[in-house]
Task: structure prediction
Amino acid sequence: MAEEPTNGELGRQIGTLHTLLDARFAELNARLDKVVSLDVYTIQTTHVEQRLAQLGTDIQRCSDATGKLEDDFEAYQRDESKRREEERQKRLYQAVIPILVCLVSAVIAVWAVIK
Result:
């Protein structure tokens, strides 16, 4: 019987175990406070997925706008090139026609003198 603990010792050991359990549960609660709940995780994941989808849509829209802008710029360059070519031809005709009229007048004048 000398090896069995007394009631006082048992009470102290139970108190120590109770204190140890309280400390462990406090530590576990502190760790659980840092853990994100499943509802919060689901909401956050859904929000991130929606935001990524929105950003993908925005990127596609910007890409389409850039493509349209490039097409419009190419059309502008073609139209501008065509306008410049037409203007060059007009200037050429404006210079050539008076010279031809002068030459024809000179030929007629020479022909009239010779005849």
